[in-house]
Each structure stands twice: as structure tokens, then as C-alpha cells.
Specification:
Blueprint: H1 2-22, H2 36-46, E1 51-55, E2 59-65, E3 82-86, E4 89-95, H3 97-118, H4 124-137, E5 149-157, E6 161-167, E7 173-175, E8 178-181, H5 185-195, H6 202-216, E9 227-234, E10 242-246, H7 249-259, H8 267-270
Antiparallel strand pairs: 1-2, 1-8, 2-9, 3-4, 4-5, 5-6, 6-7, 9-10
Helix pairs in contact: 3-4, 5-6, 6-7
């Protein structure tokens, strides 16, 4: 047993020394073919609040966990997890918010440049490619560090209709029917695999996203102030218009009641 323990300790020390030797720059590959700085960026995302995206018949649902760091902190007037890029594109963020702000501003600028040049909304995947090219560039040149942020992009265009994409710090991206990023994303992915079904209605997608988010937070109940739900759907009055709607407190409470995750009201309020 002692020999096995010493062998395990030796392997651990060797891997630690290896990572220290090759993790000082993003431009250096380890002998195993790994870029440690990119892996560290992904670890930073694993510490961030969870985000869940679910594709449904009517559009796309994005759910995000709001982390309240202090009761003394003034509540933000806008969401710090979900951002509108253009009229037809929204994104959810997990990771370092300051890094995300740089890429979001770039995405908004690129979307408006495309609209000005071609007189039509930018295709969702084209915009995501531009952002991922920037992220990839920060893994390949010396003196730079990777962006410590992952995105869930939800959008609509006339080529492919509604779409949901996920991107990571390496610059990779992929299309998904349902996915999650942030803390406990592996547990969220396993729940989505078992519970997601093609042809979900909007109400079912809202309930599924809320349920998955509660599992990532290890909580049997959810409070309205810790939840951010956004839908991207076609306008009921004008189907040619795409509407991004962030659910208000009453709508969030209704979703929590339907899923059975609402916090029970105090006795004095219930009476």
C-alpha cells in the first residue's frame, strides 16, 4: 500500500511540475498537447453562476442564476447574466463579467455594422463566428490571456430560424437543443439529456430550464431574486418581429409555482 501511495504522490508531483512548466503562456503546448491557460479559463467558468438554454417550438428559453454577493449591494437595474445583442439575438454569460462586456460590445458593434452594410439583420452563426475568432486569437498570441467567459447565444434568422449556440474560451462553438454552462454544468447536462424532448412548448421549456437550474444550485426551492428567465419568441401581434422578453417577478413566481419550486410564504402573509 505504501508503494502505491508513493507512486500516486510521485505521479501527482510530476503532473504538477509539468503544468507549472508549461502554463506560463498560452502559446506553449505541454508534451501531452494541452494548453493549460485555456483549461484554467474553463475552470474559472466552472465557478460562475449557472446558465441554461432550452430550444422549444416557439423559440428559445435562457435561464440564469443571479448570485447575490451581499445584502448591502444595490440591486442592478439590468441583468448581469443575460444581454441583448440585437433585436433578434440575446446571450447568457457565465464567467468573468468584465471579460464578457468586451465581447458583448464587440458583438453589438458587429451586428450594427452588418445591418448598416447589408440592410438586414446579421445571421446568428456569422456573428458568433466573429466573436469566437476573437476568443481563439487570444489563445494563440503571446502577451494575451484567454477570455474567461462562455456564452449561450439564442437568436433567429431567415436562414435557419431559431438557434441556440454555446461557445467556450478556446473559440469552439456548437449548436444545441438544450445545454448548460457554469457551476455544476455536467449535472445539468445529464438532466437535460433525460428530460428534454423534441417539440417542447414554451411553458414546458420554462419549467425544464427552471428545474435544471434548481439542481445546479442544489436547492429544493428558488427565490425570484435569484432567477433570471428570458424568452426569445416571435411577436404574437406581428410574427415577422422577434421579441426578447425578460420575465418579471409575477411571471417568475408563476413559473416557480408550476414547477413546485416556489418558496412557501410565511404564515402571516398566507393568512
Amino acid at each position: 500500500e505504501r508503494d502505491e501511495e508513493e507512486g500516486a504522490c510521485g505521479e501527482w508531483r510530476e503532473s504538477l511540475e509539468m503544468s507549472r512548466r508549461y502554463d506560463s503562456r498560452t502559446t506553449i503546448f505541454s508534451p501531452e498537447g494541452r494548453l493549460y491557460q485555456v483549461e484554467y479559463a474553463m475552470e474559472a467558468i466552472g465557478q460562475a453562476g449557472s446558465c441554461v438554454g432550452v430550444f422549444c417550438e416557439e423559440g428559445v428559453v435562457l435561464a440564469a442564476e443571479k448570485k447575490v454577493t451581499s445584502k448591502l449591494l444595490e440591486p442592478s437595474k439590468t441583468s448581469e447574466k443575460v444581454y441583448v445583442i440585437d433585436k433578434h439575438i440575446v446571450c447568457a454569460v457565465a464567467g468573468i463579467t468584465a471579460d464578457a462586456n468586451i465581447l458583448i460590445n464587440q458583438a453589438r458593434l458587429s451586428a450594427q455594422r452588418y445591418r448598416l452594410a447589408y440592410q438586414e439583420p446579421v445571421p446568428v452563426e456569422y456573428l458568433l463566428q466573429l466573436i469566437c475568432d476573437t476568443k481563439q486569437g487570444y489563445t494563440q498570441f503571446g502577451g494575451l490571456r484567454p477570455f474567461g467567459v462562455s456564452f449561450l447565444f439564442a437568436g433567429w434568422d431567415r436562414h435557419y430560424g431559431f438557434q441556440l449556440y454555446q461557445s467556450d474560451p478556446s473559440g469552439n462553438y456548437g449548436g444545441w437543443k438544450a445545454t448548460a454552462i457554469g457551476a455544476n454544468s455536467n449535472a445539468a447536462q445529464s438532466i437535460l439529456k433525460s428530460d428534454y424532448k423534441d417539440g417542447l412548448l414554451l411553458s414546458d421549456a420554462l419549467q425544464l430550464a427552471t428545474k435544471v437550474l434548481s439542481k445546479t444550485m442544489d436547492s429544493t426551492t428558488l427565490a425570484v431574486d435569484k432567477l433570471d428567465l428570458t424568452t426569445l419568441i416571435k411577436s404574437k401581434s406581428d410574427p415577422s418581429m422577434i421579441v426578447a422578453h425578460s420575465l418579471n417577478e409575477e411571471e417568475l413566481e408563476a413559473v416557480l409555482q408550476e414547477t413546485g419550486l416556489a418558496k412557501p410564504k410565511p404564515a402571516d402573509e398566507a393568512s
